[in-house]
Amino acid sequence: MQTTRLRPLFQLASLNKEVIRTVAVASAATKTENLKSWNEIPGPPSLPIIGQIHHFFPGGTLGNIQDPETIMRLFDKYGPMIRLDSILGKPPLLFLSDPDSAELILRSENWLPYRPVFQSLEYYRNDYKREKGQKVQATGLISDHGEVWKEFRSTVNPVMLQPKTIKLYSNVLDEVAQDMIVRMKANRNEKNMLKNDFDKEMNLWALESIGTVALGCRLNCFDPNLPADSPEWQLIQCVHDLFVVANELDFKPSLWRYFATPTYKKAMKLFEHHENLTKHFLKKGKEQLKNNSGGENGVLAKLLAINEEVAHIMASDMLFAGVDTAANTVTATLYLLATNPEKQDKLREELRSGSDRRYLRACVKESLRIMPVVSGNLRKTTKEYNVMGYKIPKDMEVVFAHRDMSLLEENYPKAKEYIPERWITSNDDPIHYGNTHPFAHQPFGFGARSCIGRRIAELEMDIFVARLIENFQVEWFGPPPRIQQESLNYIKGPFNFIFNDVKK
Ligand code: HEM
């Protein structure tokens, strides 16, 4: 009785704390007198006229930017802030590995957060595809900003983030996972390794899974006779190529903002191809909907009820952002469980016991900490900031390097070790995640602009990892896999997994 009466008071107190914290952070952020200038921020030295571009040449400090360790090495050298000046029309960039500073900017930019990634996609959707002077409407969450983004996001949030709607997919996602297990069992060689390319197999699973949610129907990706030029394989290749070209155009120095480079032309073709493939799959989804009457409405039906354009845009973003992300996260989790057999056994025990799946969730979370598929979050500053005594001007792009922050001992004790327990242990345990700065680890981003597919991704991955561990004793041999950063962190082969059957 008493606790019920007191609850609103507690809620009010914690709400107040949050408001005070946000206001304090925002005002500290905007006091920018007597600060060191942007040019004084440490970073690779600039040369007259060419600036820092030479660092991107082979052998240069940033020559191997595909290796995620490159940025880590720069933090070791320059400290928690690294300045990269404007190169070939690309705005200046600041890398940050200080959680307090990340919190300061992310919170202050949370009203209309501007995430400056995929400018090439933005250009394709806003300019390349449009007649001159044509009114720009919403193009998608990945490519829009400002009020247009806000309106679209508020329209789709209730559908995409509603636990009741997402839960509807538990059974069909389990069906997908079990079908994938059957496919993997049939696809092993005499050493119990997969005969097909492991990464492509994971992409097939991810596409089949997100397809069931985005389109409300099975795509039949696991058909053993699926032709190599089928729309399913084409989509998988297209998404991967898009992330690679986006990295070339949007992150590395590139002249595409001045003239049509070969990579730019390739990117425009790929974006168009992706759009056409989305239309193909959407048609399939809509036909299926016509045949399904009754039952609870899923994501596609609810988005179509808003309007056709919204459904199309959202399906396109899901078929872009929802494939390689989930596939690489499952691969990372499997690798970490294979190389930490005692954790794998503990997980299998939990799955056998039928208890709630807290350890399963912790295993996936911990793999996102150690081997995240996205290295950092980005925001463009809409005002000036005081970050650690330096003035960060308006219109700067800031990367919050959560991969690097998550691997620092000062943020996570035993940072390089795979310890799922840290996500479920009690808060008096030194490894408890709650003892860490919350802005040191943001694998799904932050606030209003955070990943809209998070709940879907977590459900898909939990279900599939559970089925994998129930069915296979997973082993790994040889050196760790190489990670290649191409907008996303791709885990590269050889994939030395062995999938022995679990003894029942
Ligand atoms: C392990 C899986 C995934 C990870 C780690 C991940 C991570 C992220 C991150 C870091 C962002 C940027 C957030 C920010 O700027 O604050 C993002 C945005 C986004 N993600 Fe995911 N994602 C995953 C899966 C998915 C899936 C399955 C979908 C499809 C349903 C999806 C759709 C999107 C979309 C549409 C955005 C843009 C949201 C916006 O700007 O409003 N993601 N994701």
Automatic annotation (TrEMBL):
Keywords: Heme, Iron, Metal-binding, Monooxygenase, Oxidoreductase. The keyword Manganese does not apply. Signal peptide: none annotated. One of its GO terms (molecular function) is monooxygenase activity. Heme binds at C451. Its cofactor is heme. The keyword Nucleus does not apply. Belongs to the cytochrome P450 family. This is Cytochrome p450 CYP333B40. The lineage of its organism: Eukaryota, Metazoa, Ecdysozoa, Arthropoda, Hexapoda.
